[in-house]
Amino acid sequence: MKYILYSIILSLLFLSVISVDVERVSNADVDLNVNSDYKEVVEQPLDVVTESNSHIKKYSSLLKDIDLNDEQKLIELYGKSKLKSVAVIKNSSLVASKNNIMMVSSSGSRKAYNKKMSGTKPNLKNLIDFTEEQIAAQWENRNLLNEVFEERFFRQLYSIDELIDLKFNNKNVIDLIWLRIPLPIVENDDYPLDLYRNVEKNHQINRYPLMAQEINAKHSLAKNIREMSKRFSAEEFSFHPTTFILPEDFESLKQYSLDNPDVQFIMKPKFGGRGTGIHLYANANQIENDPNYVVQNYITNPFLIDGKKFTCRLYVLVTSLDPLIIYIHNNGVIKFATTEFNTDKTTFNDENMSMHITNQAVNSGKSNFAFSTDINVDDIGSRWSLKAFWRYLDNNNIYSSTLLWKNIKDVVVKSIFSVEQSVLEKTKELMKSESSVFQLLGVDVDLLDNFQPIFIEANTNPQLGGSKAPFDNYNKLELIRETFDLIGHTIYNSTAMKEDIKSKLLQQRTQSDDNDLSKTDIGIMSTVDIDPLQFKTIKQIDEQSLQKLVQFEFEMLHRYVKSDAKDY
Questions:
Q1: What is the pLDDT of residue 209?
Q2: What is the DSSP pairing of strand 293-297 with strand 265-269?
Q3: N or C, which end of the chain is more exposed by having fewer CB within 10 Å?
Q4: Alpha carbon separation from 116 to 21, 111, 447, 513 (Å, rounded)
Q5: How many whole angstroms separate alpha carbon 382 and alpha carbon 308?
Q6: Is the dihedral of CA 52, 55, 58, 63 positive or negative?
Q7: What is the largest CA-CA distance in the chain?
Q8: Comparing C-alpha atoms, which of 342, 337, 302, 318 is closest to residue 453?
Q9: 3-class DSSP state for residue 489?
Q10: Contact partners, residue 483, CB within 8 Å, separation at least 6
Q11: Using CB atoms within 10 A of its CB, is residue 551 exposed (0-12), middle (13-18) or buried (19+)?
Q12: Partners of 442 in the beta sheet?
């Protein structure tokens, strides 16, 4: 597992189980000034639990002597994962008859696991007839998500009209719903009601209702961060560009431009992505009051590498909103512009997008778009890995990668925190269980020349493959696998392991008295960071709360035990 955990405790459920005093926030990576205004929003104190790489473990203290790196041993203990079904839905038309459902893959592809062909970097000795360029093209064209579906024993379900009916007599037919709604229709159909209202507790869906409208839509993200800055402080939430939402902020934009004549502006579609629909303006005089757009201060003092601007693309997994639990992947990608940066206003226009926009869709057609075709090289040309960036900073004594990573994580967590409450309310309104949902986000962060991180945007449909650089596709394959591990779709039977975890937790009800904590209690507390004074409340926890604690413990095991704990 390669995740870093951030658990923002907002719920009475976990306040009674794993929370600690509010004062811990000042020592955590997220440094919010909690005040009485916050209680008006969530009616809870804020607690942040953070974990660092110093907590590397090989064995679980709860499940003794189980090495989560030993997949064969896990299969012996818990059995192989059962065959499962995933409904892959690529649009918002959802309710159809059972007769329309067709199977794409009925084998579950156990051969994919046994051979592990999709799980390793290619052995060039076996591909001697292929050039590096041909291998790179193969990686670019691979459907990595489908490969992981097969590796984790999923059958894929779809219909001729891409319609899915979840109301089968056998509610176990569909285990996972993988929903992909294109950005152009997010505004009007972000969370299809017929789908979400029929998701049962034993289903799992990859998209929180309203999340795209709140964090992907640029005007909503700006409003949410603006609201947080009012309730906490402008300084704490000063990590997002000044944003003018059209049409309501048009007059303010014109006045702002007059007051700040040196400011340049970037105009973006509210529901845009991949660099499409963007316009650059040296001043606000030519900007039209288009209600489909926002206008932002353009960053004219970015940190540059070899004279070029870049953006850090990170991957964030949200596994719970109540409490808010966030995992941030360490190994993202650095996306470079292909033209050297300058601030000359005469070049700040749509003809020079490759100087100011870093998306692959904008730059890959340029003659100077470069990347390594060697899967083991991640620091050449227009695409680097995030780890390569850390090496660049540290090897050249430019800036502390540890400090910068801490500050980047800080703005990512605060940005997601700003949308949590509204998304949670909509989730509870529509769904039988908030625990049925998870969300993988791609987030973009820019750096100023003083290394201040600026949260640019989030994407609820991050591209999981299709990169020109082979290392990037391989890293995305690992990202998908590690995401599936955390949400419970492992090679072994994760349900059996969770039952084992649950039974161990329930044993505490009889193994400790009212005054003393047993050795087993202490072992559990070291695993899930439970305050000793509050641990005994597990004995009074209800079933739903217990299930959440079991899932949290399962995630923590895979976050810390399975791997060196240096990435996700």
A1: 94
A2: antiparallel
A3: N
A4: 46, 8, 39, 48
A5: 10
A6: negative
A7: 75
A8: 302
A9: coil
A10: 317, 440, 568
A11: buried
A12: 315, 459
Closest listed residue to residue 206, CA positions, set 469, 436, 523: 436
Cα torsion angle, 168, 169, 170, 171, sign: positive
Q: Which two tokens stand for residue 537?
A: 């409340």
List CB contacts of 18: < 8 A, sequence separation 6 or more.
7, 9, 49, 528, 529, 530, 531, 534, 549, 552
Question: Residue type at 274?
Answer: R
- Rounded to whole angstroms, how far apart are CA atoms 18 and 49? 9
Instruction: Measure Cα distances from 42 to 258, 432, 535 in Å.
Output: 39, 21, 24
Tell me the pLDDT tens digit for each residue of 504-542: 888 765 555 444 555 555 554 554 444 554 445 555 567
Model pLDDT for residues 180-226, shown as the tens digit of each residue: 887 777 777 788 888 888 888 888 999 999 999 999 999 999 999 99
H-type helices in 315-433, by residue range? 353-356, 360-363, 386-395, 401-430
Global pTM value: 0.82
Cα distance between residue 349 and residue 282, in whole Å: 7
Q: State phi, psi for 295 to the nearest 5 degrees.
A: -125, 130
Residues in contact with 495: Cβ distance below 8 Å, sequence separation at least 6, in sequence order: 488
What are 334's strand-pairing partners? 312, 384
Question: In a 3-state reduction of DSSP, which class is residue 476?
Answer: helix
Q: 3-state class of 383 per DSSP?
A: strand
The full DSSP string for 292-345 is: TEEEEE--SSB--BTTB-EEEEEEEEEEEETTEEEEEES--EEEE-SS-----G
Give the rounded distance of the alpha carbon of 260 from its chain centre: 36
Residues in the chain: 568
First to last CA, the chain: 6
Element (H, E) at 185: none
Q: Which long-range contacts (CB under 8 A, 24 or more apart) does 377-384 make?
A: 377/471, 378/469, 378/471, 378/472, 381/336, 381/469, 382/335, 382/336, 382/338, 383/333, 383/334, 383/335, 383/336, 383/467, 383/468, 383/469, 383/471, 383/472, 384/310, 384/333, 384/334, 384/336
Best CA proximity match to 211, nearest among 517, 421, 482, 431 = 421
User: For residue range 125-178, what is the model confidence (pLDDT) as tens digits?
Assistant: 455 567 888 888 899 899 999 999 999 999 888 653 444 555 444 545 789 999
Distance CA 207, CA 93 (A): 16
Which of 42, 52, 50 has the alpha carbon at shortest distance from 13? Answer: 42
The 10s digit of each residue's pLDDT in 477-489 is 999 999 999 999 9
pLDDT digits (tens, 9 = 90+) for 326-379: 999 988 999 999 999 998 888 898 988 899 999 888 888 888 889 899 999 999
How many Cβ atoms sit within 10 Å of the Cβ of residue 261?
Answer: 8
Closest to 475 measured CA to CA, from 306, 289, 267, 334: 334
Give pLDDT, residue 330: 86
**Residue type at 491?**
I
